[in-house]
Amino acid sequence: MSVRADQITREGDTCWRIVTASRAAFLVDGKAHYAAAKAAMLKARRSILLLGWEFDPRTRLEPHKPDDGIDAIGAFLNDLALRRPEIDVRLLIWDMSAPIAAAHDFFPQRAKSWFRGRVRFQLAAGLALGACHHQKILVIDDEIAFCGGGDFAMGRWDTNHHHDSEPSRRLPVSEKPYPPRHDVMMMVEGDAARALGDLGRARWQDAIGKPLPGPASGSDASDPESGHELSSCWPDHVTPDIGPAGIAIARTHQSRGGVSAIRENERLHLAAIVAARDVIYLENQYFASAAVGGALAARLKEENGPEVVLVTSPTSAGLIDRTIMDAAREALLARLHAADRFGRFHPFEARTDAGGCVIVHSKVTIIDDVLLRIGSSNLNNRSFGFDTECDIAIEARRGEAHAEKRAAIRAFRNRLVGHFLGRAPEEFGSACECHGSLARAIHALGGGAGGRLRPIVRREPSLFSAFVARWHLGDPFGVEDAWRPWRRHAARQKIVRQQVTAVPPYAAPGDPV
């Protein structure tokens, strides 16, 4: 496959495959994700394959509607498999470690008892101690696929409004409310869905040790009631955001059996940061990657480098994450502020109207209006070499031929940032044009102290937090340093020294293309 000098997505380097999606949609928050997934699964004819980090069968798909008894994902899949026995339904979910499972009511392990019969539920083990299966993929008939940051689990559903009080945002059994939560998925159709099906089946065989054949051809598929040929599984209520478009699939998988780790997601991020001209927009649950930090620091030191805007949570949701990941985040933020000689680094935390915490669980990177990446990879070390991850990206590149795709990426960025501020995408887009800066537009439309997007206040780390951050405790680079923090520190120092010089020579900002 030939590539251009300005191309960020490269097969065998920054991604695994580049395949075409006949259409794609960007699903913001759990309400949109769950409704689209439910509608697509109801159209399934041959297969449903779900990969996830977390899974709770009690999760309501449409909790804002009256419960019909089969709205919870476990009951829904059991009912679908019973009514449509020709559909092969399989779930591959991480065999969550006991300390983490305890915080999730010992799911997904308990979920196995929900499925007896036609739904095949498997726990994914076989990774190095401490690593997790973190891919979030749903593939239906190899025609439609979802990929991003969302799992079917408790506390994940929310609307775009992220209200302080939302009647439908309640846990099962206890009925206790949970805080607002933000996530993003991409839904793709066509060859891109088939490629994600291939990835899912390969992961199934890797985790279970048994091959999983692809679904039979759908050319003769028909409605069992009417006998008429069925169309795509694409949900009727979802309007595509873009299409057709090339979709780059990037993976992470730890090293094993003498085979080097797959680090496509890391390389994709580094190449994208190098290629940025105007703005790097990062929306992520964590912010701790030494490699990404080094690349961003180098760009911030440039006199005419890009603006860097980060949106994340005020604090992490769980105690372990607050202890480990928040300490690393504070250290990285301090480093980037020190490198920010020209005032272009703008980290924000998401808040509700009343100042409450919005949990930002999404994993989104947007570079100018030429690259959009949505996936499962956090901006931490383990997501780039220790866990299993899957991201998908759309690259528009520069030039008139890609103007429509760039407009779609730009519109989605405006929609994302605008929704945090409670503003329409068009209003936020106009503010960006008026002020010539993403960060200035945020401040102009109600960001800043007391707003819904607030600058992250730098905190003086405790001695313990500084120790955790220095040694990246709980956040290894790979199998080699997983339980050897002294190796991790050495690896971090090497990455810091190399910065972006280790990235292949992609077109530099300002180069003609």
List keywords for this structure.
2 domains, ten-stranded mixed β-sheet, alpha+beta, globular, 513 residues, Endonuclease, Chain A, 19 strands
Describe the 3D structure.
- With 513 residues, this protein is an alpha+beta fold.
- It has two domains: 23-208, Endonuclease, Chain A (2-Layer Sandwich); 275-378 and 400-502, no CATH class.
- 29% of the residues lie in helices and 19% in strands.
- It is built from twelve helices and 19 strands.
- The strands form three sheets. Strands 1, 10, 11, 12, 13, 14, 16, 17, 18 and 19 form a ten-stranded mixed sheet that branches. Strands 2-9-7-6-3-4-5 form a seven-stranded mixed sheet, with helices on both faces.
- Strand 6 (137-140) and strand 7 form a beta hairpin.
- Helix 5 (264-275) runs parallel beside helix 6.
- The longest helix is centred in the middle third of the chain and has 21 residues, at 319-339.
- It is globular and about 60 Å long.
- The model is unreliable at 219-230 and 499-513 (pLDDT under 50).
